[in-house]
Amino acid sequence: MAACMEPIHSSGVITFSPNEIAPAALPVSEPVLAAYWMNTEGATVYYRETDDANTVNLAHNEVNIQYRYGSKFRVKSVVIITWEGGRPENSDSDGNLFQLALIIGDTMTFAHIVYSKLNSNDNAV
């Protein structure tokens, strides 16, 4: 497995260049994948890549429900990124919890986002 993960930022965004980028109104000059993008503090970010059969099957089913590729799309691996506890500066909220799953196939990649708990929404993009 060889997912190329450029910076995964605690602000809820993945960038595809080494440049730091602050949340701003879209579009922005750099290519980004923004799951839930806002200035945060206290966020912990976890990520892993897996080719576990159960995870791959769940990911394939999700793509098939949304896009109906059936057997034309084969999942090679899934990169799961979890943002936990991010909240606006000087906030006493519990913070947010959300995930981004990059479902990687031979010729296509899909992004599946799960918003589990969103307690903060200050200037999210």
TrEMBL record:
Q: Name one Pfam family in it.
A: NIDO
Domain NIDO, by residue range, is 31-125
What the entry lists under InterPro entries is as follows: NIDO_dom
List the SMART domains hit by this protein, alphabetically: NIDO
Q: Where are the transmembrane segments?
A: none
**Which Gene Ontology biological process is one annotated for this entry?**
cell-matrix adhesion
The name on file for this protein is: NIDO domain-containing protein
What species does this protein belong to?
Dictyocaulus viviparus (Bovine lungworm)
